[in-house]
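Mods, move this if it's the wrong board.
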Amino acid sequence: MWVMLGWGVLFTGLLVLGLVGYFYIAAQLPPPEELERRAFRFASSQIYDREGGLLWELIDPYGGRRTWVPLQRISRYAVAATIATEDRFFYAHVGVDPIAMIRALYYALSEGEVVSGGSTITQQLVRNVLLSPEERAQKTLRRKLREAVLAIEVARRYPKDKILEIYLNQIYYGNLAYGIEAAAQTYFGKSAADLNLAEAALLAGLPQAPATYDPIVYPERAKKRQQIVLGLMVEAGYVTQAEALAAYQQYLEYKPPPLQLRAPHFVIYVRQLLESRYGADALYHEPGLKVVTTLDPRIQAVAEEEVTRQIAALRHKDVSNGAAVVLNVKTGEILALVGSPDFYDERAAGQVNMALQPRQPGSAIKPLTYLAAFERGWTPATLIMDVPVEYPDGKGGVYRPVNYDGKFRGPVLVRIALANSLNIPAVKALEFVGIPALQEMARRLGITTLTRRDYGLALALGSGEVSLLELAGAYQAMANGGRRIPPVAVLRVTDGLGRLIEAYQPPPGEVVLRPEHAYLITHILADNEARTPLFGANSPLRLSRPAAAKTGTTNDFRDSWTIGYTPDVVVGVWVGNADNHPTRGLSGLDGAAPIWHAIMERILANTPIHDFVRPRGVIEMEICADSGTIPSPECPHRRRELFAYDQLPLGPEHDIHQRLRVDTRANCVVSHDHPLGEGIEERYYRVYPPEGRAWALEHGIEQPPPPCVSPDSEGMAIAAIHWPGDGHLIAGVVSIQGVALAAGFSHYVVEYGVGWSPETFVPLSAPRTQPVEGGVLAEWDTRPHPNGPYTLRVVVYDHYGGRYEGRSTVVVDNPLSEATPGWLWEEPSTPIPWPFEAFPPEPLEVTSTPEQPSVPVAPLFPPELPGVPQPDSHLTPSPEGDLSPWLWPEATVTPTPEDQMWFPIPEEPPVPWPTATPWPTDHSSVATP
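Not the wrong board. Structure tokens:
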């Protein structure tokens, strides 16, 4: 009995203590009667250009876009959808959900702050209306308790229908629509009373994240959110499964908000960023925000004028839309963004921001493939055979890439191939590096959309989809010497009282490319002489100052692109139709390039001319003009070319111009040390790699006979893998052993492919120029790769065009790590990254992916050139000072001050690269034409 009495006293004490605490908290809170009076407290926020001009004021354009409607004039579907989504037991609880509160209290006590929800409709209402903005932002147990007490008091004094009525008239639905009536008018042009089930379910899903689920900007996201709401309504018993399915399948036609504003697409983009960063309350409630953006009003006006003028001139080509982006190279600031020529043109979907919509980039993606090839040993002088080629398309058919003009040019160097946008060399470059390498390069340069796993080799020609803003951001890293600074739109944010919230300080940038490679790509894209054969000497890509540029055209002429840069700005242009229907034969050169040219010339007209500054690690050498090697004595034409200091051209023994000793009796090639006479004579040949022999013979270019086979060499294995053998289980780092020999040996390559019969192979290293008679051919770190079957092969090349191959099929069987499986979310669980957060750059560390080995990163400045062949007769290092630009003719050059260039500090000694560059292999990958 005494025990029961003790428990009773304890319970009574706790009850009294809880009541005292409750009334103590309640006494300090605003009276719940203020709920209606405070519900509609607005404050405007302003968005300015970088010079202080007002672009847009975030305020109700019609005296506050909120129209009060009683609950009886709100569609029953809207009421049901809101309750099912936000607070299923709204009519049953006392203002708080006890179970959800207990869960939130547990996490608050264990974590030290509120990390779990549990807010009812009543709690949401009092939080947004009765608590101050400062307290509203707190994640503390104290704030949660105060909110709960006030919610209980409001529920005690107000009828449930009144609370729901105030909530539905107060909540924010995006696009300046406050309340259900404004939302219905904004998105569907009708009253809240007339909303059907499909419309009501879509609107009920918006308040949680209006910017994320904006149905005008992100219709697919909004549709997925609508599906979730309909499912919740079925669970709550408001509608049947059949009614929900019919509503989900109903087509919804949105009515874009009637806005009149400057730089509309840019302003809407900034508004969405602000909402994602701060939430709607900060923008539309006291004290509001003052936002200074990166937009340059003069450059924006030029971009708008040129896009509008060119699209109007192209009407006969069935073109209705275009977009442009201008970025500051050194800071990443968006100086101009045009999403369409006419924001209010509904026929051309003018309110869709085409600068942010993923589209196929065509050849504008090619520089990324060649950057990946440079990281694996290629140079501007690597020889590629531009000849017909076939690949399986993975669907039982054949993929036959062709060049834009349908011609085949035979042997071309990378400089010519990229400058003239030849398709077949680009496909061969992607075959060499592998599709995962291009995807990794795109990710490294800020492109987020090339994530599918079913791409084929047509990805080299732009079959994936990217946005104009992200692709322009990728070119920014090339223009900035390999340092990437993500595009930013906001310079400074203060509140309505003038207190600084955030300010953008341009970071030094993340090193994503070797500066040598960035400069070499830039130099090729700026080489007007190199691109003249296809584009002409006076194309729109030629400016009155040094500039690098690349066009792009997609199949059926659906998309026309030009992206290019000077040392100061990047300009990207897209032309096409928002609904993706094709134009009438409009290429990137004819559609987007004139806009690019006009914008560049106008915005830079009164600025100093800057040249691209050559890094120390770029040197100049003499090469044979048509083979790209150090010239042999037989080379008829020579020129100068640029190289990274540790990736020099092949030696003269790889020149296509050769004098070979031929046994005229047996019609075969003998070694050079074989004496002349007795049927042995010396002949001159242009010796092409195996895939070029047919082209050479078709063009009347005699090829050498096969090498003579001596009795001692008969039966000798010239390309074989001895270990690991067929069927071996391997793990960790594997030494691949075998033989790589040939008469007239040139080089060999070791590669791997996924599966028993792979259609494409990835090189394990750059080509090796020393034969192996029985030893280690290469090493393969299998740990980054998924377990399963792989095919290894060694390919040996000789100087006479011969090619020999040996294979071995193995199974990778590494121990599995005990990792927690990751979940694929439809949308990120964390807020969208804020574009003007300046985080300290991390040191560059290129890590391997499951599909692609890691790429070594060499430092920018070698203390001395490494111990690679540097014959004085061929090698010309850049002048002392090592920052001399490669001069363009007729350009008045103002060198960029040295302190404006950012260079990485080497953390490791230089990684020597092989001096040999490979012939592209003739094996294929899956591609779609």
